[in-house]
Amino acid sequence: MSRRAKLIFVAIFLALLSVPAIYLGLTWHPQSPLRFIPTPGEHAPVPVDNEVMVPLTIENTSRAPIHLLVASFYDTSHTGKSDDSLGVITPELQINSGISTSPEYILIPASGQFSGIAMLDHEGYTRLRDGSAQVEYLWASRIKYQAIEALDHLRTSLSPTWYHLVPEPTIGQDRTTLQLPPAPPLDPSQAPSFPSSTEPSLSKAPRTPPQVQLPPP
Questions:
Q1: How high is the pLDDT of residue 162?
Q2: Which residues of the chain have pLDDT under 70?
């Protein structure tokens, strides 16, 4: 094989090798990939006991499939304490509401969306609907999540001597803002009201008396 042919072969090999490396670099840990968008226009928030189920869309702005583990809602003065959460989004909540997802994570496709629900307490719903709110979420790209699972399995099969040599990728944690549109307060003792466009209004009913035709004498 000539020197020129060898150089061409090496160049092709390196080019092919760079493709998965570039893909891994782009999809391993995208920056702030998720957006949380309430969609009350499609389904009205529903009071459930002392909480409110709020429909929302989770939008993935990255080119990598994202595994959402959990998301928590806070007001804008959140200081990092876990006991001031106003609500959550979890896989279990989606499953209990009849939405198909994994019990361990919510999968949002690359450059796609997931229609799900959040559960807020009434105080949290009242505070969130009047202004901006923060959403903190734990997540991993699909390829990173699979790597974490594989390394965890490897770690459990090793002796303590070699355990610490196995790398342990960290789960992503990000924060974004959420804007809930204004909505009337919900009373947990009442059933959810119908949208105003479909609810009959007595105030707009015609007030002219009906015409009654008398029989001829």
A1: 81
A2: 1, 4-27, 40-45, 77-83, 127-128, 130-132, 179-217
| 216, amino acid identity | P
For the four alpha carbons of 149, 150, 153 and 158, in that order, the dihedral sign comes to negative
What's the sign of the alpha-carbon dihedral 98, 101, 103, 107?
negative
The DSSP secondary structure of 84-112, one letter per residue, reads G--EEE-HHHHHHTT----SS-EEE-TT-
183-214 tens-digit pLDDT: 545 545 444 443 444 343 333 444 444 444 44
Q: Quick check: 75 and 86 in contact, CB under 8 A?
A: yes
**β-pair partners for 44:** none
Q: What is the C-alpha separation between 50 and 56, in angstroms, rounded?
A: 19
**Torsions phi, psi of 10, nearest 5?**
-65, -40
> Are 139 and 69 spatial neighbours (Cβ–Cβ below 8 Å)?
yes
Do residues 127 and 85 touch, judged by C-beta distance below 8 A? no
130: DSSP letter = T
Which residues are CB-contacts of 114 (< 8 A; sequence separation ≥ 6)?
A: 57, 58, 60, 68, 101, 106, 107, 108
